[in-house]
């Protein structure tokens, strides 16, 4: 008779937890997954997927404007917020169903409820007590609001996907990717949008040029930027809200959205009670193989607060499954992780920033360009593309590729393969471009910055 009810119990049905559970089951493990909400986690329900759908909707306005330069008449076009919400919800429900089906087809038992860890091998959910050789914490993270008076009057990105009415005015607080993406979404949908950020530059942690160029483009798109400014409170003002600023100024708005960070979902799990070591922000501390301080308890995804990206959580889940149930210990290489920011315009980036490259490799060569794309010659758009390569001077290896412009994520995805293969600038130069495209500029960059 088996010592435990399962080989693996996963707490959390987001992308990482679902992938780890499904792959583990494919290796012959007996797996149960516990989820208190909808399957798919943040990404599917209140993150990447609905956000990209909203971004498509917001881009339509500029597409209509561009069409006139190509001879199209689009007079009378109207936007309906309710229609977008209904269609978005239908797509999310479809994806929820797909997640359930792939788990069921793999033989994973899905349990609905909120779990609590009782000991190194035991989980309680509702009136059930279940045991497993291994427990996996894949509970993700949640948006947080700053500790200022009136913060409860604002929303986070979670609520932005379910607003009853699209506001006439919106103030977004923050300067990371969620803040700039939603600023672009609201602005594109016709909302008078202001972005307030406490630093002098957007997108901390990204290459410095990306934050600078994006700020210029956001202003060109009609977004008001308030940099080096800190909100100190929010209060009601008639039918609207008033945001108080550290400078002593204030601004009136209909909606305040905080995009000021996320924290791991560990409350109520009982991890500290059983001896699992947590970081100061609540993240589960794990080793290279995702083992916590209790070897039978593992964690992946946003709850470990390494790289908060869906593909990373999925890769961590696959590595864990191989380690536990395929006798193939697997570590994830966190270098050269490509990512995109679906602001307007998009950002795509992979590899080292210029500052990181100089710190790690010393002398580097930097190639950059900024230009008006072909489409803009007829559309009349003022949007300009920015591209940058960071190259190790001693070896010629391309260390980083960064872009601001339409479809930046699609272009950078291909360059991520090149960087992972150790491509050099000479190999980029020897590659023929596809003409006329924006992407070809990455293989035609010849003028490096003066030292």
What's the short version?
The chain is an alpha/beta fold. The protein has twelve helices and 21 strands.
Description:
The protein folds into 3 domains: 6-143 and 263-325, 3-Layer(bba) Sandwich (FAD/NAD(P)-binding domain); 151-260, FAD/NAD(P)-binding domain, CATH 3.50.50; 339-443, 2-Layer Sandwich (Enolase-like, domain 1). Helix 3 crosses helix 6. The strands form 5 sheets. Strands 1, 2, 3, 4, 5, 6 and 16 form a 7-stranded mixed sheet that branches. It has a 5-stranded antiparallel sheet with strand order 17-18-21-20-19, with helices on both faces. The radius of gyration is 24 Å and the shape is globular. 31% of the residues lie in helices and 24% in strands. It is α/β, with parallel strands linked by helices and 451 residues long.
Supply database-style keywords.
FAD/NAD(P)-binding domain; globular; 31% helix; 21 strands; 5-stranded antiparallel sheet; 12 helices; single chain; 451 residues; 7-stranded mixed sheet; 3 domains; Enolase-like, domain 1; alpha/beta; 24% strand
What is the tally of beta strands? Answer: 21
Uncertain stretches = none
**Sheet/helix structural class:** alpha/beta
Please state the overall shape, judged from the principal axes of the Cα atoms: globular
Number of domains: 3
Could you describe the largest sheet, including whether it forms a barrel?
A: 7 strands, mixed
Q: Report the CATH C-level class of the largest domain.
A: Alpha Beta
Q: What is the CATH third-level topology name of the largest domain?
A: FAD/NAD(P)-binding domain
Number of distinct helices = 12
CATH superfamily of the largest domain: FAD/NAD(P)-binding domain
Rg, rounded, reads 24 Å
């Amino acid at each position: 008779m088996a010592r435990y009810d399962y080989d693996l119990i996963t707490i959390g049905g987001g992308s990482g937890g679902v992938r780890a559970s499904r792959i583990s089951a494919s290796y012959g493990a007996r797996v149960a997954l516990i989820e208190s909400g909808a399957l798919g986690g943040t990404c599917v329900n209140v993150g990447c997927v609905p956000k990209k759908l909203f971004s498509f909707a917001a881009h339509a306005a500029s597409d209509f404007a561009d069409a006139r330069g190509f001879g199209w008449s689009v007079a009378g076009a109207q936007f309906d917020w309710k229609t977008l919400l209904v269609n978005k919800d239908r797509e999310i429900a479809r994806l929820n169903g797909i997640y359930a089906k792939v788990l069921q087809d793999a033989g994973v038992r899905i349990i609905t409820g909120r779990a609590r860890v009782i000991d190194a091998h035991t989980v309680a959910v509702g009136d059930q007590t279940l045991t497993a050789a291994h427990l996996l914490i894949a509970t993700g993270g949640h948006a947080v609001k700053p500790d200022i008076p009136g913060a409860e009057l604002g929303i986070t990105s979670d609520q932005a996907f379910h607003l009853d009415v699209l506001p006439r005015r919106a103030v977004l607080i923050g300067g990371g990717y969620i803040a700039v993406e939603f600023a672009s979404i609201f602005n594109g949908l016709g909302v008078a949008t202001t972005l307030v950020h406490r630093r002098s530059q957007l997108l901390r942690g990204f290459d410095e040029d990306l934050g600078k160029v994006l700020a210029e483009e956001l202003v060109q798109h009609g977004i008001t930027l308030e940099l080096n400014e800190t909100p100190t409170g929010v209060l009601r003002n008639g039918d609207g809200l008033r945001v108080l600023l550290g400078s002593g100024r204030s601004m009136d708005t209909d909606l305040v959205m905080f995009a000021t960070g996320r924290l791991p979902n560990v409350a109520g799990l009982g991890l500290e009670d059983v001896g699992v070591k947590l970081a100061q922000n609540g993240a589960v501390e794990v080793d290279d193989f995702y083992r916590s301080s209790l070897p039978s308890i593992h964690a992946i995804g946003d709850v470990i607060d390494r790289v908060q990206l869906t593909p990373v959580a999925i890769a961590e889940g696959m590595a864990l499954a191989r380690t536990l149930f395929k006798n193939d210990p697997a570590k994830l290489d966190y270098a050269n992780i490509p990512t995109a920011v679906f602001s307007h315009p998009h950002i795509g980036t992979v590899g080292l920033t210029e500052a990181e490259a100089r710190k790690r490799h010393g002398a580097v060569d930097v190639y950059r360009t900024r230009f008006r794309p072909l489409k803009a010659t007829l559309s009349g758009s003022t949007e300009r593309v920015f591209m940058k390569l960071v190259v190790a001077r001693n070896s010629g290896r391309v260390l980083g590729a960064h872009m601001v412009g339409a479809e930046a994520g699609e272009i950078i995805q291909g360059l991520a393969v090149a960087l992972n293969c150790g491509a050099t600038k000479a190999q980029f130069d020897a590659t023929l471009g596809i003409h006329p495209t924006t992407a070809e500029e990455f293989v035609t960059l010849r003028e490096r910055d003066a030292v």
